[in-house]
Design a protein that fits this description.
This protein has one domain. The protein is 82% helix and 0% strand. Helix 3 packs across helix 5, helix 5 runs antiparallel to helix 6 and helix 7 packs across helix 8. The chain is an all-alpha fold and 218 residues long. It comes from Paracoccus solventivorans. It is a multi-pass membrane protein. InterPro entries: Integral_membrane_TerC, Integral_membrane_YjbE. One of its GO terms (cellular component) is membrane.
Length: 218
């Protein structure tokens, strides 16, 4: 059966890795935005952020596969994912130590870091934090759905599995995944390599689509 082929299994592995890494990355961004809030408002902001990210993933999932069928958008999606890869590489290379501590404290609903220092997130209002979270959610949800769609191309069942998993992880386990990735950074590096591979493949296939369309139009 087709789901036992190496190509299908490879696509599924890529999709699962992408979902894990991007769900954790999204949770860290949400935690960082909420870190400057008083403790009684922090959980509210995180809940709003995770809920918004879940809804956005559903919305983007409904339209992304149709959009990628339009000539040129596969290439554009690949370029966007290449930029996402560069951002992830820069964050992983720098370590983002202080920011990650602040984000982890917020996600754990703690006011004191492991080193015994108070949380030091930049102070802000709930409205400012929620606005920052929503803006980040739009970008990261689109990144996630594009990456899953790119990895699962030609495998509709893998695409469905990936999108359902993405929504479930974001809604149910994103904070746990964020802590896991922060502890085992090699997971994030594997995810980065897979996203980079998907981005380059989308650019390659998208460029060929554009070239063929230009030849036919000539």
């Amino acid at each position: 059966m087709h789901f036992l082929t190496g190509d299908w299994i490879g696509a599924l592995f890529q999709v699962i890795a992408i979902d894990l890494v991007l769900a954790g990355d999204n949770a860290i961004v949400i935690g960082l935005a909420a870190a400057g809030l008083p403790r009684d408002q922090r959980n509210k902001a995180i809940l709003i952020g995770i809920g918004a990210a879940t809804v956005m993933r559903i919305g983007f999932a409904l339209i992304t596969t149709q959009l990628l069928a339009i000539t040129g958008l596969l290439l554009a999606g690949g370029i966007l994912l290449l930029w996402v890869s560069w951002k992830m590489w820069r964050e992983l290379r720098s370590g983002a130590g202080h920011d990650h501590v602040a984000a982890q404290e917020a996600l754990a609903d703690a006011d004191v870091s492991i080193a015994g220092r108070p949380a030091e997130g930049k102070r802000k209002t709930l409205g400012q934090a929620v606005t920052q979270i929503i803006i980040a959610d739009v970008s990261m949800s689109l990144d996630n759905v594009l990456a899953v769609a790119g990895a699962a191309r030609h495998h509709l069942d893998v695409l469905v599995i990936g999108l359902v998993l993405s929504i479930a992880l974001m809604g149910l386990a994103s904070t746990w995944i964020a802590r896991l990735i922060n502890r085992f950074r090699w997971i994030a590096w594997i995810g980065l390599l897979i996203i980079l591979f998907v981005a380059l493949r989308m650019i390659w296939e998208g460029w060929h689509e554009v070239a063929v369309a230009m030849e036919m139009a000539a």
